[in-house]
Structures are given as structure tokens and as C-alpha cells.
């Protein structure tokens, strides 16, 4: 089972594109809006060193930005 968490902000167009892409692929994910959760935002920057969104954690590996090819390569197939 994949563990996918997408870190977003309310105003990010690439975040919307990424969430739509995952939904179209049938990939369940958890969304964390760092604009609404400053503690999560701080943790994210401490973990990855990046402030930009979207950032996606897939089974412990990180993808920065809207990168469908890398995201799909990290999602394990059943």
C-alpha cells in the first residue's frame, strides 16, 4: 500500500493540478495545506529544505513540484 501525502497551499495552481492528476490515476492521498497549518509548514521545510509547493511524500521519498512521471515511478504497483 502506498502512503502518499501532498503538501499544498490554497493559492497554488500546481497543487490543484497534482491533486487532480492523482485522483485521475486513482491514487489515494492525504493533503496537508501548509498555508493553514504553520506547524506542518515548519516541519516540511525542516525535513526537505524547500519552501515551495507542491511537495509530495511517497513511501518516505520526496518529489518537489508537479512531476507526474517521477510520482508514478515511485508509486509501487500491486
Automatic annotation (TrEMBL):
UniProt xrefs under InterPro entries: Glutaredoxin (IPR002109), Glutaredoxin_subgr (IPR014025), Grx-like_ET (IPR051548), Thioredoxin-like_sf (IPR036249)
Residue ranges of domain Glutaredoxin in the record: 4-63
Pfam families per UniProt: Glutaredoxin (PF00462)
Domain of life: Bacteria
Gene3D superfamilies assigned to the protein according to its UniProt record, in alphabetical order: Glutaredoxin
PANTHER family with a match to the protein in the record: GLUTAREDOXIN, GLUTAREDOXIN-LIKE PROTEIN NRDH
Protein's name in the database: Glutaredoxin family protein
Source species taxonomy: Bacteria, Bacillati, Bacillota, Bacilli, Bacillales
